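Support request from a user on the community tier.

User writes: "When I paste my structure tokens into the form, the page sometimes reloads and wipes my input. The last time it worked, I copied everything first. Here is what I submitted, just in case something in the input itself triggers the reload:"
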């Protein structure tokens, strides 16, 4: 198997790297950036700190802060109009996965025209967009290093996956100091998203030795450090480790792809507005239990790397420990079941068929070690309910 690896040409990683954004934009010859962010980044004044830094360096910028959680095609299309009408030459995204995903899609429309749904996976995205510098403030979706964006169709309500090398940011600034103020719930959800990226990249049918190394390094760190960041939000050492691991996990899944958890997670987000990392957490133990028989050695290696099993444990025992560990971690991080989240049971049951169809249509389940049927997907959703 020949692996092809794509990562942003420039990654700046480390505490304080946020201060180097303007200099980086100058290197990229970007003079009129559109900052894509959300209302929270306006409120905590990080967007203004960024704009000031750019103005002081002689760069002009405009702030588009209409990004919403589960970004929609309507917001992307509005952002693309602001980008074109403002004569901007580059994008700077600031925030969690939503602003970064929104900026990717804005760049795509600015370069290719049309509507977001015209480029839904597996359709190609022909022209590369403008330079895009991504600044994540969570650890994290990994969106700053991936070739993917997930946009909800404002008309149908479906979460659409878009994929292509042209979506990869030009540069990413990964500064853990921006994550020190994340509240515990967001820390747990975004951290579990990263853990899911690492595990899914490692068991994916498209895994390769390059992504394996990153995925294993990431899952080891995230398993150890996530509870610390959750219980001690200002623990800088844990935050720094989590931020690096989230980016490593992002590179791993961008090049090996995610699998069944993500395929099943998107419909839960689209239909019930469960935050992405939380819906991953709800599904991860049950999907792992379903998948183990097709890749017991790979799941056992996850368990050993995460310290859940010993080197001498059999693959069977180690994989069992992984499933048990994932359930108990969810309890520690106070992850609700879909029922506890407040979803009406009749609605959940009535939508099982739709959810399974959307999950399969996303393409991600086909990368899973055990490829499920629609009925098996419904069964997993039922298990996750309890
Ligand atoms: Fe994810």
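"...and here is what came back when it finally went through:"
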């Amino acid at each position: 198997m020949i692996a092809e690896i794509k990562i942003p040409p420039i990654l700046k990683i480390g505490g304080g790297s946020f201060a180097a954004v303007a200099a980086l934009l100058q290197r990229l010859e970007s003079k009129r950036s559109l900052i894509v962010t959300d209302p929270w980044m306006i409120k905590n004044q990080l967007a203004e700190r960024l704009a000031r830094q750019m103005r002081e360096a002689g760069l002009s910028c405009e702030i588009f802060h209409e990004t919403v959680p589960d970004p929609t095609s309507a917001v992307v299309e509005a952002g693309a109009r602001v980008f074109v009408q403002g004569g901007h030459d580059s994008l700077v995204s600031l925030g969690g996965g939503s602003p970064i995903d929104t900026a990717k899609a804005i760049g795509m429309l600015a370069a290719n025209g049309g509507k977001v749904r015209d480029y839904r996976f597996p359709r190609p995205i022909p022209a590369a967009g403008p330079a895009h510098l991504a600044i994540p403030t969570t650890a994290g979706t990994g969106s700053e290093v991936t070739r993917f964006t997930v946009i909800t169709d404002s008309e149908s309500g479906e979460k659409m996956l878009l994929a292509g090398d042209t979506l990869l940011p030009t540069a990413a600034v990964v500064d853990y100091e921006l994550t020190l103020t994340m509240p515990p719930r967001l820390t747990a959800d975004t951290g579990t998203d990263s853990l899911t990226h690492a595990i899914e990249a490692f068991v994916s049918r498209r895994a390769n030795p390059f992504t394996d190394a990153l995925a294993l390094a990431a899952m080891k760190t995230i398993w150890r450090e996530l509870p610390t960041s959750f219980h001690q939000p200002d623990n800088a050492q844990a935050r720094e480790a989590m931020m690096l691991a989230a980016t490593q996990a992002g590179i791993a899944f961008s090049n090996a792809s995610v699998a069944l958890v993500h395929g099943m997670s998107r419909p839960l987000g689209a239909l019930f507005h469960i935050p992405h990392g939380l819906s991953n957490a709800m599904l991860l133990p049950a999907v792992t239990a379903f998948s183990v028989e097709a890749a017991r050695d790979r799941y056992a290696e996850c368990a050993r790397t995460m310290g859940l099993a010993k080197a001498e444990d059999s693959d069977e025992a180690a994989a069992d420990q992984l499933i048990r560990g994932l359930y108990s971690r969810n309890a520690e991080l106070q992850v609700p079941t879909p029922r506890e989240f407040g979803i009406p049971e009749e609605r959940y049951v009535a939508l099982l068929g739709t959810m399974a169809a959307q999950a399969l249509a996303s393409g991600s389940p086909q990368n899973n070690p055990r490829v499920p049927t629609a009925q098996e997907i419904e069964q997993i959703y039922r298990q996750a309910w309890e």
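Agent notes: The reload is a front-end session timeout and is unrelated to the input. The CA atoms of residues 68 and 251 lie 24 Å apart. The beta strands are 10-13, 32-36, 60-64, 90-95, 131-136, 148-152, 159-163, 171-174. Escalated to web team.
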